[in-house]
Amino acid sequence: MAVLGFLLVAVLLVLSPMMWLRPSRAESVRGRLRRYAKGHGGELSFAKAPIAQPDLPLAGYRLRYPGTLTGSDFTLVRNRAGSDALAPATAGWRWRQAPLPSLDATRLAALETWLETLPDDALAVESHQHTLCVWWQEAVELSRFEREWPSWLAMRDTLAGSGNPAPPPGRPA
Question: 51, 60, 105, 124: which has the fewest C-beta neighbours closer than 10 Å?
Fold first, then answer.
């Protein structure tokens, strides 16, 4: 009987590290979100997010503007993640960097509407010449993300062409 008890303890000691190494439910959800985004035209960024809360882990879901179209440079942050000194943009959002060049009325209205649909844990939206990036904590279920992903792609397409035209490629020296 002591031998069986010893074998049971040995088996449990061998299996216990495997249980500790299993991903948590939140890690599994994040993995599915990331695979879906990468499989449907998105990229991931783990660089420093454009907010003043360095201890907050955020992932950037980046979408490239199509072809040679460029986007306006701007950064928006949620009110709770930004300073009151930042200029208000829309309900719940502030400009950390206002759009350069400015967005036309149609694109600005579309951006404001889209910002309302973003998950509550999306804390920053950043646009540069070649990419649109949403910084968030990935706290939604995959089914909701799958439903909302097309609106992210549509916003990217709406903002495409809002920036200064890209210079033509130079001739090699």
Answer: 105
| DSSP assignment of 78-130 | EGGGS-TTSEEEETTEEEEEEEESPPPHHHHHHHHHHHHHS-TTEEEEEE-SS
Q: What CA–CA distance (Å, rounded) separates 72 from 79?
A: 22
Q: Tell me which amino acid residue 133 is.
A: C
**∠ CA 128-78-115, rounded to 5°:** 65
CB 142 within 8 A of CB 36: yes
> Could you give the C-alpha distances from 9 to 4, 14, 15, 68, 137, in angstroms and in order?
9, 9, 10, 63, 40
* 83-129 pLDDT, tens digit each: 888 999 998 999 999 998 899 999 999 999 999 999 999 999 999 99
Helix 142-159, helix 105-117: angle, nearest 10:
170
Confidence tier at 10 by pLDDT (50, 70, 90): confident
Q: Quick one: tokens of 165?
A: 């035209």
